[in-house]
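Technical annex, item 7. During the second reporting period the consortium partners agreed on a shared format for inverse folding records so that results from different sites could be compared directly. Each record opens with the tokenized structure and is followed by the designed sequence. A conforming record, contributed by the partner at site C, is shown below for reference.
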């Protein structure tokens, strides 16, 4: 199919466009087909039958899966760039970004021309794997830049929504699978099996033997399999590295082992791997310390799943001289079941927990708090509920923390917006912390 423009947004249709009508969670683009036709679309792609009068005006392609077709048309539009690159996919509940960056830094250190698409590099709000059109546009740019490898952080949403369906991965890495995104996938088994699809379709799968899903994944993958494990760490990164990545937790040692295993597959020598791991800068907002003169340690971390919050709090608890204070929330319109789980983890491991906003979207923050509180099992737990995130951060740093304490701001990290009632408002945990350290509160000027 030859075409000059493709979009799944009726507002962006212009003369000669191919309009792919996607049925989403909140809107069915089938209802916007008349608008697309009126704007001059040449071709309509949809899973539904056309109205008779449409056929007089446009070519109409009825397909079984519009999302899959959008990905394939997007790839075709940009010259099928994935076929010209060696693709490395990294998936998992936690650690995807760090592992992706580790692999990227190792390949770069070894002199390979490599690109990276991750949570940190992806444009837009709350995005990890870009939507189809943007993804293939980026890959096409990498081809023009003569990249040899691309490390791509792959979410379960990207797999389920067929964004990567035309891509052939040389190698796929999984970090772990724990509780997350059950609002979308409905059951843990479906979530796990979605991750599995990436591994099954790659030429080589790299598996974490320490993860409880390892045996299930291993027996369901009929391709070449490589494994890594803390228990079988013959490389012993803790001893071999002068500046061990392990200083920020054993889960990062696992991430490093995943990256090491991947790099060895491509023939990279151990010296280059170790050098890259020792000297790389961690991705922004991954247990990033904000220096200050108050005599407290303040960290910003992306931990927004039960497992991630548990791991980072356990690490900080092992290092503390004073108390551990945590500020975090649970996103609105997302996995409700993880809310009490995260509250329980926080109130068990931290000395003081402050529940606050993390993209409430259309939900009332009071309802989110009520779900969280149900998980508090520790009767002696000290916790507060402060709806405004800026006020919560200020309260933790200026009112709660004392000299020698550690304050963890979890859940938003690198993200630059906060979602309320269908709108995105500028937000930065980093700015909120810096303002709190100066005795000020970062406020969001909302319309609601």
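Designed sequence (site C submission):
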């Amino acid at each position: 199919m030859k075409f000059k423009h493709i979009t799944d947004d009726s507002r962006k249709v212009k003369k000669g466009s191919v309009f792919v009508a996607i049925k989403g969670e909140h809107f069915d683009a089938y209802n916007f087909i008349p608008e697309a036709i009126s704007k001059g679309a040449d071709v309509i792609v949809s899973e539904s039958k056309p109205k008779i009068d449409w056929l007089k005006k446009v070519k109409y392609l009825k397909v079984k899966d519009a999302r899959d077709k959008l990905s394939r048309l997007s790839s075709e539009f940009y010259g099928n760039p994935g076929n010209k690159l060696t693709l490395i996919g990294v998936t998992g509940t936690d650690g995807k970004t760090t592992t992706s960056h580790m692999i990227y830094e190792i390949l770069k250190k070894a002199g390979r021309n490599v690109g990276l698409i991750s949570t940190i590099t992806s444009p837009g709000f709350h995005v990890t794997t870009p939507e189809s059109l943007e993804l293939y546009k980026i890959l096409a740019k990498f081809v023009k830049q003569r990249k040899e490898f691309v490390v791509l952080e792959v979410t379960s949403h990207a797999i389920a929504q067929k964004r990567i369906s035309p891509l052939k991965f040389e190698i796929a890495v999984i970090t772990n699978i724990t509780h997350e995104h059950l609002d979308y996938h409905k059951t843990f088994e479906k979530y796990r099996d979605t991750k599995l699809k990436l591994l099954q379709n790659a030429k080589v799968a790299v598996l974490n033997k320490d993860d409880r899903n390892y045996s299930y994944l291993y027996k369901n993958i009929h391709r070449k399999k490589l494994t890594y494990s803390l228990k079988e760490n013959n490389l012993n990164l803790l001893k071999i590295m002068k500046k061990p990545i392990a200083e920020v937790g054993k889960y990062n040692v696992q991430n490093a082992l995943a990256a090491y295993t991947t790099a060895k597959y491509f023939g990279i020598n151990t010296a280059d791997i170790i050098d890259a791991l020792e000297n790389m800068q961690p991705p922004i907002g991954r247990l990033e310390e904000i220096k200050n003169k108050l005599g407290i340690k303040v960290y910003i971390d992306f931990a927004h799943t039960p497992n991630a919050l548990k791991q980072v709090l356990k690490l900080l608890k092992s290092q503390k001289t004073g108390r551990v204070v945590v500020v975090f929330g649970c996103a609105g319109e997302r996995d409700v079941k993880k809310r009490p789980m995260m509250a329980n983890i926080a109130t068990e491991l931290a000395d003081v927990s402050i529940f606050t906003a993390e993209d409430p979207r259309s939900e009332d923050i009071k309802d989110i708090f009520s779900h969280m509180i149900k998980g508090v099992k520790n009767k002696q737990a000290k916790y507060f509920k402060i709806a405004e995130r800026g006020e919560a951060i200020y309260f933790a740093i200026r009112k709660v923390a004392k000299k020698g304490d550690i304050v963890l701001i979890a859940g938003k990290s690198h993200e630059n917006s906060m979602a309320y009632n269908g709108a995105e408002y500028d937000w930065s945990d980093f700015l909120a912390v810096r303002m709190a350290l100066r005795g000020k509160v970062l406020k969001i000027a909302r319309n609601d």
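The mean pLDDT is 91. The chain has 16 helices and 18 strands. All partners now use this format for quarterly exchanges.
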